[in-house]
Amino acid sequence: MASGKIQMTASDFPAFLWSGDPPGSKYNENEMTEGLFQGYLLERVSFCLFIAYRVLIKHLRQVMRHIFTGPSTALGEDSRATRSCNAALHDMTSVEAEHIAYGCVQVCSDLNAQS
To answer: Are 75 and 62 in contact (CB under 8 A)?
Structure first.
């Protein structure tokens, strides 16, 4: 988009992204970015998303600790392990993108099971 190879118009975005009542009514064709991402719904939902994000990150951190160091350390306790941790058993010396993706799937599965 920055190079101009991809053209972006207002019709490429839903109206609720712009400010106004009804949503999008303050859209200015000459200044497409004016009021963009200031819609009523976005302003109200963004706080909830921020809180949800913090909860997800906390949960993901616990899952990653569980995967790498074991279940007792996931909640911040000292390890009570009687064998080597999962990371050592599987020769995992660093966190890779695949590990994070796996942790995200576990968090998603856990959160879906709770609701």
So the answer is: yes
